[in-house]
Amino acid sequence: MTAIGARLPKTRGDRGLSWQGTGNAALLIASFCIGQGSVFLVQTLLVSRGELELLARFGTCFSFAVLALMIVDFGSVTSVARRVAFADIKGDPAEIRHCFWSASIVRFCVAITVASLASLYALGAQDDFARAYVTAATPALVFWAFNAGGILDGLKLSGLSGVTGMATYFCSGAALLPASGLSANQSGLILGAALSIGCGIAVTMQLLALWHVGRPPGRISATWRRCADLVREGLSVLLAVLPGQLSFRFQLIICSLLFGQGLTAIFLYGRQITAAGSQVLEFVRRAHFPLLVHGIATSASPVWTAFGNQRLATWLSVFGSSGLLIAGLLIVGSTHAAIAAAAGVVSLFSFGILSGALVSTLSQAAQALGHYRAVALSANGAMLICFVATAALGYWLGLAGLAVAEVVSHAAGAFCLWYLLFRRGLPASRGT
Q1: Sign of the CA dihedral 402, 404, 410, 413?
Q2: Of the four, 97, 137, 291, 395, which is 20 to 30 A from 366 by CA?
Q3: What is the DSSP string of 365-384?
Q4: How would residue 194 be classed by pLDDT, with cut points 50, 70 and 90?
Q5: Burial degree of 400 (CB within 10 A; 0-12, 13-18, 19+)
Q6: What would the DSSP string read from start to end of 285-322?
Q7: Which of the four pLDDT bands, split at 50, 70 and 90, describes residue 352?
Q8: Does residue 112 contact residue 182 with C-beta atoms inside 8 Å?
Q9: Contact 143, 200 (CB under 8 A)
Q10: Helices (H), 91-127
Q11: Distance between CA 331 and CA 338 in Å, rounded?
Q12: What pTM does this model have?
């Protein structure tokens, strides 16, 4: 019966869901271009001016701030979205309200913990910019504890989630240029405050969006059991997502130790371009995730279902990887030193877009089935391999070694997932 169901032609409703997913992906990509694109444009101006010190300081602090926000979200963009998608199918709006408040309670506890650790770091930091930035950016963690991104995703409104979330980046981009002529302490305070303001605006807009579509959070409604379930699921999702993020930050640290602040700034700038390519693919996958949850539950071949569902992301990864490789090579020999060096970084890391797309699609298939633990295990194994390869190959081959280490870690993660799950058929996890 399952196999037959997998072969049935798409109905008009299926096609409608597919087009809705494409529309959400388009909104996510447009929001990304406006939000993170604003930060990138100002950074381009800083590179052209040779202000690499501010670029390195801001890029490092902003990168770790985004990581902190991801930790505070605690995997709810996936775990809550999956629960809400099932609740929406059943027509259970009460479950949506329960999910929001239960997730918010969990995230608030995480935010307080992360904020406490950040405050301790700020007290002992020697860098004036970093100390000021962390102090001013700490409120962003509390604001983000009440984000509704997972709810909007589960309701097939991830495009709205992207539109609201771009405020987080746009505010930082708008504050970066005015901060360039100030002291380290002043620029750190302004840029950290910009992040907090952006997060506050984003969360407010998300809650207004829920009210507009008739799904407001309403009165506080949560149970310890639901909170415990979200902690378990969210931790598994977070352990699957964090390794890739930590691998990049480890590359940043190794680059700073081996090559100095100037090349670190170039690395950050060029790496953002390839990271943007991967992020666009993630938006496409994210927009189609509710449809994947529906389709994969009745599929006898979850891997092929996942790649069929995410064929747009797969083709975009092929074209994006090859396009950035060619563009980077062309720019290397046709412009001044700083931009040429950044273009070289883009060419080196363009291969990671394609290898990352493979492991991301496999991971999403496993998450749609509820097998968060297997995804976390494979991701953490890949992270350890990336750490070792980054340190060794970075010392031996320089920036090229960091690019090779990334591809090796992606291959290791994909093989681990295939070995744990997809070499044999597995039913969906009982946890919802």
Answers
A1: negative
A2: 97
A3: HHHHTT-HHHHHHHHHHHHH
A4: very high
A5: middle
A6: HHHTHHHHHHHHTT-S-HHHHHHHHTHHHHHHHHHHHH
A7: very high
A8: no
A9: yes
A10: 93-124
A11: 11
A12: 0.77
Rounded to a whole number of angstroms, the distance between the first and last alpha carbons of the chain is 23
Tokens of 117: 């650790």
| Cα–Cα nearest to 286, from 406, 198, 367, 392 | 367
| Interacting residues of 120 by C-beta distance below 8 A, sequence separation 6+ | none
Residue with tokens 């640290």: 253
Measured between alpha carbons, how far is 391 from 327 in angstroms, rounded to an integer?
28
Lowest model confidence (mean pLDDT) among 81-95, 103-117, 291-305, 317-331: 291-305
Give rounded-to-5 percent helix, strand, coil for the chain: 85, 0, 15
Q: Which two tokens stand for residue 373?
A: 């633990």
> Is residue 193 within 8 Å of residue 143, measured between CB atoms?
no
Q: Is 370 left (phi over 0), alpha (psi -120 to 50) or beta?
A: left
Tell me what pLDDT residue 2 has: 35
Whether the per-residue pLDDT at 3 is higher than 60: the answer is: no
Residue 98, judged by CB atoms within 10 A of its CB (0-12, 13-18, 19+), counts as: buried
